[in-house]
């Protein structure tokens, strides 16, 4: 049997990263170069094909020392998804070492079963995960998907995990830790590095692995480094010798602004939830007004970051930009963001989000440095919907409102237009676009009619429309239901204070027509301003990268900042 040595641990992490990255790429042929100590060299060629319900990856690896072939391996990996079940099959052979092997696994929620054939022997594998630590990342109650999500989402944090090595028939308690992302420039190519450190608690030595990702295509894996061994995309020289450092632009931005701003940490306890907030104020000079910022949907924190790929600190940038122009800004973690993660009855709804915003607005009004100043309510994306709800129902009484990329129609229509437009940009045919609209309608109707606090979709529908799994988060059905029922056009009608609507013309999530729809619903008080080339996350984006994640470190669109400040001053 294989021993769980450091190299096999690194290979395990590498295979997980490879399989995840392969599914994110459109190219079906990869070539890697292996660089090792002394004269050890190698080549890795992977060819992946899209199957009806999964992927097939063929890999050929040759490792040489001089002219001597140390190993030649061939492996075939197949994955198949059937609703909540994943079938994984891998087989291969080596000219030296362990010989041929064949591994078959079935991962169904918390059950792992299958068999391993090696050296003429067969071993049945059958495991049930009886308990899961809250720190284990899971998607759809699936541990394998959760591990992949963890490798992408764990930035500068550590967590205890249970790691399974099927070739060794072994469970190990481990600490997985990732360092901070670093930005590099290789020629004209931006590269992100992320160090992952795995420490086994059963006497194992720490294994430090560094991964390289191509940005703006964040999921494109370029290479992996462990000690003096590296695996690089063909044509990319060893990392340490060729890539020059490039400072993240936001580092110098926050450093320079910090001399002129002051941050005050605040807390709010609401219905058993402890929420954190930060008030950013000018350190010198007069304060012209105070702004409460309500953030967007999902796991987006008070800085504007989330583990799904947003790392530009867009809300912190807003606070610093406005503070240097004489405006205080309070931003906060929503009730669903750590440390307010223990959701207690009543379950979250749009009403509770609005009540929380009202409580934060009251805290802001009571700050001695902000007493009797004009109070402004600002909402981004979902936060704009919360702001409209709070003002419409009299929970907050600001002097002005600013809506950044705010939906202008019920969520069903916004989601349908978002997905169909992105499908058109990808070149999908009309039948696929029609099916997308149909699936959104089915999902929306199911959410609105469902009872309880959690919704479930059958495996057949999830296979056709994986996005629906996002709405299956335990305890979040009341929130989703209230947001699907809300109509921003009705909410903005009757609001009798100045409202600035900011809409980027390259937003592919809340499409530009949303801003016009809001203005038409309240033409007397609403002012609509389109920002050229601005995306949903308030940064400038080129037309060619409109569907691709941009490299971290982007500054906010300067035209948007100037426009909002000018509006507040006038």
Task: Report on the architecture of this protein.
It is an enzyme of class 3 (hydrolase). The chain is an alpha+beta fold. It folds into three domains: 6-243, no CATH class; 250-409 and 487-569, 3-Layer(aba) Sandwich (Rossmann fold), CATH 3.40.50; 412-481. Helix content is 28%, strand content 34%. The strands form two sheets. It has a 16-stranded antiparallel beta sheet that branches. α6 (350-366) packs across α7 and α8 (411-426) runs antiparallel to α9. The radius of gyration is 26 Å and the shape is globular.
What are the defining features of this structure?
14 helices, globular, single chain, 24 strands, Rossmann fold, 16-stranded antiparallel beta sheet, eight-stranded mixed beta sheet, disordered N terminus, alpha+beta, 570 residues
Structural class: alpha+beta
What is the name of the CATH superfamily of the largest domain?
Alpha/Beta hydrolase fold, catalytic domain
Rg measurement, Å? 26 Å
If helices are DSSP runs of H or I spanning 4 or more residues, what is the number of helices? 14
Envelope shape: globular
Annotated CATH architecture of the largest domain: 3-Layer(aba) Sandwich
Q: Please report the first level of CATH classification, the CATH class of the largest domain.
A: Alpha Beta
Name the average pLDDT.
Answer: 75
Q: What percent of residues adopt helix (DSSP H or I)?
A: 25-40%
Number of strands: 24
Largest sheet: 16 strands, antiparallel
In CATH terms, what is the fold-level topology of the largest domain?
Answer: Rossmann fold
Q: In terms of quaternary structure, what is this?
A: single chain
**Low-pLDDT stretches:** 1-27, 131-156, 163-171, 237-247, 338-345
Q: In angstroms, what separates the terminal alpha carbons?
A: 74 Å
Strand content: 25-35%
Number of domains: 3
